[in-house]
Amino acid sequence: MKKTFAILLLAVLFVGSALQAQDTAKPALRTWKDSTGQFSIDAVFVRVNGDQVVLQGTDKKEISLPLAKISAADQQYVKARLTSDSSASKTITNMIGMKFNKIPAGTFMMGSPENHTDRRKDQNPQHNVAITKGFYLQTTEVTQRQWKAVMGTEPWNIERVVGGVVVKEGLNYPAQSVSWDDAVAYCKKLSAKEGKTYRLPTEAEWEYACRAGTKTTWSFGNDEKVVGDYAWYKVNSLDIDELYPHKVGLKKPNAFGLYDMHGNVYEWCHDYYGRDYYKQSPEKDPTGPAPFPLRVLRGGSWRSFSQDTRSAYRARDFPDKPAFVDTGFRLVRELD
N or C: which end of the chain has fewer CB within 10 A? Predict the structure, then answer.
């Protein structure tokens, strides 16, 4: 009898724990109030954006409220939600030693402002974008060691010489001369190998992660004189006859702990390239225009001028042709 009762008690506790886990996994509809008690709204917590808490009302529309002006109880709820949402590790390492940092959901201004001197037509109009789901992004570009561990090939060993370019081989040099098709094949093979979802970042995810909360020309500010502290580019590579990408992770990272987002090698994104796409891009989680012959590249490379390493700079190439020696990629790993 005691044994049966114990089993029943354990079952009740298990079910109760499961229901509690379900309750905390999804934010619930609740009544939000301001600190004076004069305003209230039934809504679901979505995210915190700067000093604003973003809610979704029963009509599915989002509303932003100043975090400092909601009730003390609601502020405590937000704090608990943020603690719960950040419970997953902020840095993970996969089976082949790739490191990924957790990039939180949020909003940002994508593209170049109108007054930017180096602004190109495909970087406007500047527009607000919401990344509604967090993700893990690789802290560096995929290295030659990481490529060979999955694919067993060496695409950078191409039998052609272009302008005296040198192919540097080594464990921590980026996997270069990788086409978009090659990069996608790598993602699929690694996903199958580990049972996790790996993919290329969307163009919006890439710029959001690159900016790391900034609105400036580069993730470190507007001062062109310090580009070399964060990037391998024309001045500290091509101009001194170092005609190759450099080892990853040697320059300073951005605020999200990501290295070489500016310079070193161009990085493939998921999206097709559309010169005028920003004019009709959706506000939430854009994934690029309709199929087009070209795919997006971001970040600039070791042979780029400084303006081509900006956070907003866009490039493009054909996805299936042999890539040039300044083309590589980094991975997104989706949250479990």
Answer: N
Separation of alpha carbons 232 and 238, rounded Å = 9
Evaluate if residue 281 carries a pLDDT over 60.
yes
Residue 42 corresponds to which tokens in the numbers above? 């039934």
Q: Are residues 290 and 215 in the same domain?
A: yes
Conformation bin of residue 226: beta by default, left when phi > 0, alpha when psi is -120 to 50: alpha
- Please give the average per-residue pLDDT across 300-326, as a whole number: 91
Q: Are residues 168 and 298 in the same domain?
A: yes
Distance of CA 132 to the CA centre of its chain: 12
- Domain range for 243: 91-333
Pairing of strands 266-272, 327-328: parallel
CA distance linking residue 62 with residue 65, whole number of Å:
10
Sheet holding 99-103, edge to edge: 91-93, 99-103, 135-138, 332-333, 198-199
Between the alpha carbon of residue 311 and those of residues 183, 222, 295, 314, 320, the distances in Å are 22, 11, 18, 9, 25
Query: What pLDDT is attached to residue 21?
Result: 34
In the predicted structure, residue 83 carries a pLDDT above the cut 70: no
Q: Indicate if 193 and 58 belong to the same structural domain.
A: no
